[in-house]
């Protein structure tokens, strides 16, 4: 379940690290690298939903990958993580997954031992603090937190007033004090995030918050157009996977229909689809085993 281990000399620009499971691996970035790039270089990040998406992201040179943690079958999450063995990967924990600091630690360690480089946690400052004190790199969330959107007036931008901007600033400070190293900043006005980024030690990850963050983040399904929509305003659709999947389904139906029609008409199986034997073989078999009566 671990990301691919490496013991030989690492290729240029890759760092040798040891995971919490004790495996020696190569990564494109470490937490320190990402922190050192704050204010100097904007990195790219996607949320991958499948191993194919993760592998494609690594091949395309995406800097960072997020993977949703599946508490019912962590192997699915590990498979996505392992598909991009050299890319810094953060496991995103469901909001209601645990109810205590002890559970947060247990889940955090399990994910890290599976090859993760960090944990995303939008649960509580206590959970973040517990994991951070145990040495787990933890990312928080500020601005629009969709599953807490009832507190901020629904799915809307957060930070458009001085009071809201102050609240986000205070959230950053609380995350810093709790030991977080990074924060996802969702649908915050871009000029507010730009100023907040200058005023925090946290690595800021912009999701729909403009170019003022240290990292630009989008979901793979938004980039790929992989769904019926509607897609969020901040998404940029580069492909139309939804149409491709619909077209593929039409082709599946057509192929199955043609197969069934061939069976009914006797066109399948044709001579090229079957195995023949010499007449002498079948005649001898029939002689040995005549039909009853």
UniProtKB/TrEMBL annotation:
Gene3D superfamilies: Phosphoenolpyruvate-binding domains
Keyword line: Pantothenate biosynthesis, Transferase
Pfam families membership: Pantoate_transf
Record InterPro entries: Pantoate_hydroxy_MeTrfase, Pyrv/PenolPyrv_kinase-like_dom, Pyrv_kinase-like_dom_sf
UniProt entry tagged with the keyword Transferase: yes
E.C. no: 2.1.2.11
Family: Belongs to the PanB family.
Subunit structure: Homodecamer; pentamer of dimers.
Name listed for the protein in its UniProt record: 3-methyl-2-oxobutanoate hydroxymethyltransferase
Native source organism of the sequence: Sneathiella sedimenti
Lineage: Bacteria, Pseudomonadati, Pseudomonadota, Alphaproteobacteria, Sneathiellales
